[in-house]
């Protein structure tokens, strides 16, 4: 049972790391503010979420679990409002979406 | 085993933060730089949580909580004060950034 928890936790942690890598590579390679924002939200929500799931699985106390879930909710809410605000302001300031030439 | 894996993943995320600095260098608009800052916030939270688990220092989770709170405040301050929409800049008389 303990080994199963460790294996599951390790799997979730590694997939969270893959999403972080994908999000950062997207932030570096995408051609436009809006597409970079899209890549960023994947790293933000999925990457951090999977890592927190792996920490939840392998944690020992309930209070630590609650704190982790609280951190996760905060990051999700802050990420979503921040990305909406940045995209709206970029649109109003005239940043053109990238079109495929 | 989980401790070693946590520290390894935290190191990989640290390298990703260093790569995010490239976007701060290149980004044509200030929004790109703010997006990289947002990435730093989330990745920093993940690094702190992983290091807290890896070194069995549970107090690092409180630091991660503070990071998560500061990240939203910094982005909202950027959007509402520095990089404002033209309509808001006229209404409030803010001389926002002109990029």
How would you describe the overall organization of this protein?
The complex is a heterodimer of chains A (101) and B (99). Helix content of chain A is 83%, strand content 0%. Chain A is mainly alpha-helical and 101 residues long. In chain B, α1 packs antiparallel against α2. The model of chain B has no long low-confidence stretch (mean pLDDT 86). With 99 residues, chain B is an all-alpha fold. Helices cover 81% and strands 0% of the residues of chain B. At the A-B interface, α1, α2 and α3 of A face α1, α2 and α3 of B.
Round the mean pLDDT of chain A to the nearest integer and report it: 90
Question: How many angstroms separate the termini of chain A?
Answer: 55 Å
Can you count the helices of chain A? 3
Order of helices and strands of chain B: HHHH
Average of the residue pLDDT scores of chain B: 86
Work out the largest interface and the residue count of each chain.
A-B, 47 and 46 residues
Task: Identify the quaternary structure here.
Answer: heterodimer
Radius of gyration of chain B: 17 Å
Q: Radius of gyration of chain A, Cα only, in angstroms?
A: 17 Å
- Main sheet properties of chain A: none
Strand tally of chain A is: 0
**Tertiary shape of chain B:** elongated
- Low-pLDDT ranges of chain A: none
Give a short overview.
The complex is a heterodimer of chains A (101) and B (99). Chain A is an all-alpha fold and 101 residues long.
Write the layout of secondary structure elements.
The complex is a heterodimer of chains A (101) and B (99).
Chain A: H1 2-29, H2 33-57, H3 62-92
Helix pairs in contact in A: 1-2, 2-3
Chain B: H1 2-26, H2 30-54, H3 60-82, H4 86-92
Helix pairs in contact in B: 1-2, 2-3
């Amino acid at each position: 049972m303990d080994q199963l928890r460790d294996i599951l936790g390790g799997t979730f942690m590694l997939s969270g790391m893959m999403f972080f890598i994908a999000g950062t590579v997207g932030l570096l390679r995408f051609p436009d503010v809006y597409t970079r924002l899209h890549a960023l939200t994947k790293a933000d929500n999925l990457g951090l979420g999977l890592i927190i799931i792996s920490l939840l699985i392998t944690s020992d106390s309930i209070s630590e679990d609650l704190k982790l879930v609280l951190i996760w909710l905060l990051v999700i809410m802050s990420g979503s409002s921040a990305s909406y605000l940045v995209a709206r302001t970029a649109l109003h300031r005239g940043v053109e979406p990238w079109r495929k030439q | 085993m989980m401790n070693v894996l946590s520290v390894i993943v935290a190191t990989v995320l640290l390298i990703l933060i260093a790569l995010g600095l490239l976007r701060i260098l290149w980004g044509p608009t200030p929004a790109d730089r703010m997006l990289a800052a947002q990435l730093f916030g989330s990745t920093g939270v993940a690094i702190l949580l992983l290091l807290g688990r890896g070194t069995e220092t549970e107090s690092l989770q409180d630091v991660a909580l503070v990071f998560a709170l500061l990240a939203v405040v910094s982005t909202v301050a950027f959007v509402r004060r520095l990089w404002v929409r033209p309509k808001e800049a006229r209404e409030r008389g803010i001389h926002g950034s002109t990029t």
